[in-house]
Amino acid sequence: MSQPPSQAKRANSRVMQQAKSGTARAALLGASDGLVTNISLILGVAGAGAGPQVIQVAGFASLIAGALSMAVGEYISMRGQVELLSGILKLEREQLHSNPDEVHTALHEILEADGVAAKTAHRASLEVAADPEKAMAMYARGKLGINPEELGSVWGSAGSSLVMFSIGAFVPLLPWLLTSGPTAIWLSIGLSAIGALAIGSYLAYTAGSRMLHSALRQLLVLIIAASATYLIGRLFGTQIS
After folding, report:
1. Which is higher by pLDDT, 222 or 89?
2. 106: phi > 0 → left, psi -120 to 50 → alpha, else beta; which?
3. Considering Cα of 131, then 132, then 136, then 139, what sign does the dihedral take?
4. Tens digit of pLDDT for each residue in 49-69?
5. Is the predicted pLDDT of residue 241 greater than 50, yes or no?
6. Which segments of the chain are extended strands (E)?
7. Nearby residues of 117 by Cβ (< 8 Å), 6 or more positions away
8. Which residue from 190, 197, 187, 188 is spatially nearest to 169, judged by alpha carbons?
9. What one-character DSSP code corresponds to residue 152?
10. Residue 100 contacts by C-beta under 8 Å, 6 or more apart in sequence?
11. Range 153-156, long-range pairs (CB < 8 A, 24+ positions)
């Protein structure tokens, strides 16, 4: 059953806001990384002949270390992005303040580029230029491609990355808390495959691309990574006690 147009627009608006803030990107990346990282590690350790307790410890260690690493990485990345964009906006604001004539010219060009008639653009640019904040907001969006109100959410990105990595990493670890041996291995593989398909499908949904193609691509990445570590574990055949 399809959503009413108003609900669909609100849902799309929320997705766009999250994407611009970096939260959605960090969440999807975190979930995907957590899933791929832990199924790869678990199968690698299991392939080396480790017992269930060792796999549990390794899985939880990977979950905690990976989640914290992803969160710190996202925090540093988004903090750098926000500071860089803020610096650009500050410099441009100073230049616009010292050259009011350029403000009007720039706004006029932006409006004309958007298809506004020359006379209308002239009047509108004069009106907007009278308000420094509105002028700066229009200039930033039209000339710099920056929305001053949406520079990115530092803590939102870090938090979503930490939580979603943990969830993704817990999926292949869950069977080892309930069973062991080949059963746990196949359950880990099955749950991870479902998770990969779900992540790929959601990526396609938000991007408006082919869902099956995106889901299978995500699954293929997981299979390649997990197979490689499992084969390496089998190759070394290290018994971990």
Report:
1. 222
2. alpha
3. positive
4. 889 999 999 999 999 999 999
5. no
6. none
7. none
8. 188
9. -
10. 129
11. 153/21, 153/22, 153/23, 153/78, 154/75, 154/78, 154/79, 154/82, 155/75, 156/21, 156/22, 156/23, 156/26
CA 12, CA 8: separation in Å to the nearest integer? 6
pLDDT at 2 over 90: no
Give me the pLDDT at residue 27, please: 87
Single-letter code of the amino acid located at 203: L
Map out the domains of the chain as residue ranges.
28-76+153-232, 82-144
Residue 18 has pLDDT above 70, yes or no: no
Nearest residue to 113 (alpha-carbon basis) of 144, 143, 147: 143
Residues 46, 14: contact at Cβ < 8 Å?
no
Q: Which two tokens stand for residue 15?
A: 């997705």
Q: Higher pLDDT residue, 136 or 79?
A: 79
